[in-house]
Amino acid sequence: MLIRLLVSVVVIYTGLLTAVSAVHPVQKSWKALEGTVDTNVLDQASAQELRYRLPSYIVPTHYKLYLETQVHTGNRSYSGSVDIHLDVQQQTKTIYVHNRGLRILSNELYSSDGGENVSFLETLRYTEDQEREFVIFSIRRAIAPARYILHLNFEGQLRTDEDGFYMSSYRDANGTRRYLASTQFQAISARSAFPCLDEPALKATVSIEIKHHPSYEAISNMPIYAIAGDMDGYVVSFFETTPRMSIYLVAFMVSDFEHTSSEEGRQRVYARPNAINQTLYALDAGVLIMDALDEYLGLPYGDFMPKVDQAALTQFSAGAMENWGLCKYREEYLLYEPGVTTFRSQTTITTIIAHEYAHQWFGNVVTNKWWSYLWLNEGFATLYEYMAADMAYPERQYSDLFNVQVLQRVLITDAEESTRPMTFSRGATFYAIVSLFDSIAYLKAGSVLQMFRLLLSDTAWRQMLRIYLEGNEFGAVSTDEFVDAMAEVTDGLDLLPAHVDAEAFVKSWVEQAGYPVLELRRTDRGEILLSQDRFYSNKIVNDDPTVWMIPYTIMEQGDSLQGPFEYRWLTTKAARVPISTPVDEWILANVNQVGFFRVNYDTANWNMLIQALMDETETIPTLSRAQLVDDAFHLARSNRIDLLTTLELMRYLRHEREYPPWEAANRAINYFYNRMRGQPDFTLYQIFVDTIIGDVFVTLDINSVLPDETLFDKYLRQVISTWACRMEIESCLTDTRIALEREVSGDERVHPDVSEVVYCYGLRTSTTSAFQYLFGKLQASENRGERLVLINALGCTNDTEQLNAYLLTAIGGDLQVNFDLGERTSVLTSVLASREGVDALSSFLIDNYTYVLSTLGVNVLNNLVQNIAARTNTPEEEQMLNTLLQELQLVLPAGNIAAARSTASRNLAWPSTREGVTLSYFLERYGVQPA
Q1: Cα 449 from Cα 447, distance rounded (Å)
Q2: Is 787 helix (H, G, I), strand (E, B) or coil?
Q3: Alpha helix (H) ranges present in 745-893?
Q4: Which of 145, 218, 281, 502 has the smallest set of CB atoms within 10 Å of its CB?
Q5: What is the pLDDT of residues 420-478, one digit of tens each?
Q6: Is 332 designated active site?
Q7: Of 133, 199, 332, 356, which residue is the catalytic one?
C-alpha cells in the first residue's frame, strides 16, 4: 500500500522545493493521526497482543462470499452471506471470527469432507466482544479435528470513512452525483465488510458473488465467469476463485465506471466516465512495468493471476493499494492528462504503479506473517517503486532518484531517539497496526534492501529473490525466510566476512533501531582508524553498545568514477585499517551512498574533499556529491563537525549542474531559510543563496521546456528557479509574471512542467486579474492533479485581501467552490508559503477555528497551529501566535499548545545558538556576492 501524507502539513515549504514526495499515501494517513492517538494506549495494546490474536488451531481454507448492494441509489445498506471453510486442528468448543460493526442474522455449522459432502451440525450460540472485534461461537459438544463450514448471514452499512466496504461518489458530466461502493481492507478492515479470520498469515481461496443493478458493473480480484439476471431486475456477477491469499488483499467495487484495456485484455484501467480519457498513460505504464517485472523476476505475473485492473477513485484515503488483481488509487496518483499533468505528477503516477505492481509478488504471492514483518512487503515495494519504473522507462533515470528521495529522507527520521527497528510490533489493535505503516517500514526497509542488493551483485540478488519467492509461494514469511534465501545464495560466494553469517548480517540491520555513523580518522602511519557509533540527530553518544555489520567501499583520489569499488567490512566497534593513499590526497567512503549509514572524516580529509568539489567537481561521483552535502549538513547539526565545514562545502554548489546534489542541498538551504527569515542578517543569507544558485540560474529558461529535456533537467530547473524567485531575484519574478500574464491574456499557455513555479511566483507581482483567472481555472478543472497545483498557486499570493477571500472558500464563503475535504485542507495549508499568508491564516483561525475543528478535525487544526509556530521568528510574530493560542486553549490539548509555544521560543532563541552565531559569522566573513 502506498501512503502519501493526505492531510498533514509538513513544517518546511515542500510544495515547490521537492521533486517527489517519496512517501506512500498510506504512510501519510498514519502521519495524519500522530498526536491524536495516545501512545500509552499503544503500549498497553502491545503488552496484550495475544488477547487480540486468533487461536492457531483453526485455519480458514476457503471463503464463499455473497453480497447484495443498492449503492446506485445512494443506499448504504447491504446484506450478504459467507461460508467460511475451516480446518480445525484440535478439539474445540469455540470458533473465533472477526467482525466489526456487522449484524449477524443467522449461523449454521456444517461438517465437511473437503468435497461436496456436508452435514448440518447445529446453530451456534455466540457472544460479541466488540473491544477485540470477535464473534465467539460456542459449540454444544466439542468438535474433533476435521473440516467444517461456518455459514453466516449478515447485514451492514457501507462506511463513509473510506475504510472497509465504503460508499463514495463523484459528479458526472451533467453535475449529477453518482455513487459507488469500493473496498479498502489493509490492514484489518476486511472484518468490517464480512465476518472473516482477519490475519495476514491465514490465507485462503475466495469466491465472490455480487448482486447489483444492471446499470453498474462489479469488479473484483478475479475475472467474471458469469452474470445472471434475478427476478427483481438486478443481476449477480460471479467471479472466479482466487489463489490462496491473505484476506486483506480481497477487493471489489460496484460502480458505473468505464475502462480502457490493453490489447491482450489482461490489464484494464477504470475511472469515472468523465475522466476515462485520462487513463491511457496508466494503462501503458502498467503494461511496461509488469513486463519489466516479469522478465526481471523470472516468475511471470500470469503464472499466479489471469488479469490486473487499476481503478482511479475520487475518495480513497489509503492513496493506493495493491489488492491482488485489482489495484486502487486516488485519482491524482493514477490519471494523466497530456498538456495538464506535470512531470512531477507523472513521476508520482509511474512510481506508485510500480510500487503496487511490485506488491503483486512481494506482499501478495509472499506475505508478511504478521504486521511486525511489514517491512518485507513495503521495503521491496519501495525499492522496486524506483527500479521497476526505471526498467520500464530507462531514459528517465528513476533509479537515480532513490538516494535523495528515499534514503536521505529516512536517515533524518531514523536518527530520532524514538525510532523503532524494522521488525517490530505494537500490538494487534487497529491503531497499533496502522502505526507501523511508517517511514521505517517503507523508506528504511527499501534503503536497507538496496544495500543488500548492491552488496550481493545483480546476479546473486535475483537468484535470492527467486529462492525467496518460489520457496514461499502462496505462503507467509518472517525475517527467517529472507535470511534463509540469502544464506543459500551467499554460501560459498565469499561475500560475507568469515565470522559473519547471513543471519547476523541481516538482523544487525533489521532488528536494531537506528543506524551508524562510520568515523574515518587517517593517521600519518598509513592507516585509517575506523569506528562506528549510533547516529542521533540531537546528540553524540560514544558508549552506545549497538554494533552493525557494516559493508563499506573506499574511493581514492584519482580513481575512476565507475570503480569497481571493493567491499570492506567493519563488524566491531572500531578497527585499524591499512591504506596506501598519500596523506595529501582525499578518500571517499560509502561510494554513491550505497550503505545505510552516514560517514564522517577528520578535518583534513573534509577540507581536501571540499577543495576537490571546488576545483574538479566531477572527479567525485554525482550521488556521492549529494551524499557529502547531506551528511555534512546533518553531522554539523548533531555537532559532530563544525558548521563552518558544511557551509564551506556548500559554496561548491555554484559549480554543480546535476539535480541530486541540489536536492540534497535544497533541504539544508531551506532549513537555514526558515531560521534566518525575519532576522537582521537575512539579507546576507539571500545574497549567499543568490551566489550559489546564480551560475546555474543564468543557464536556465524558467518559462519553457525543450523537447529533448531529461527528467533531471526539469527537476534541476524547478529547484533552482524556485529559490531564485523565493530570494526575489528580479529576473525570476519578472519572467514568471510575464509568462502568467501571457496565459491570462490568451497568448500562450504556461507549460505544465513549469506551471508550479510560474503560477506561484508570477502571481506575487501580477495584477488582480491573474488571481481571478487562476481561481476561475480551478473552479472549471476536474483534474485532481491540476486542481492541487492551482490550489497551491493561489495560496502564494501576498495580497491580504486575496488571501482572506481565498481562505474563506475553504469553509464555504461567498466564493463557492466544489472542494472536497482534502482540498479544503490544502487551501488552508497553501497560504503558508509566505509570511503574509501565515498572518492571514492566524487571523482566519481566530475567527473560524470552530468550522475547521468540526469539519476537518482537531488534527488538521493542530497541524495548522504547529506550522504557524514553526514560521514564528520575531517577537511580533510570537505575539500573534500567542493571541491565536489563547483563543484555542479550550479546544486543543494543553500539550499541543505547549509544543507550539516551545517551537516559537526555540526559533526566537536560534540566532544566539551555536548554529545561529556560526552562520552569522560565515555570512559576514565571506561577504558573498551574487553571480
Answers
A1: 5
A2: helix
A3: 755-765, 768-780, 784-794, 800-809, 821-830, 835-851, 858-870, 875-888
A4: 145
A5: 999 999 889 998 899 999 999 999 999 999 999 999 999 999 999 999 999 999 999 99
A6: no
A7: 356
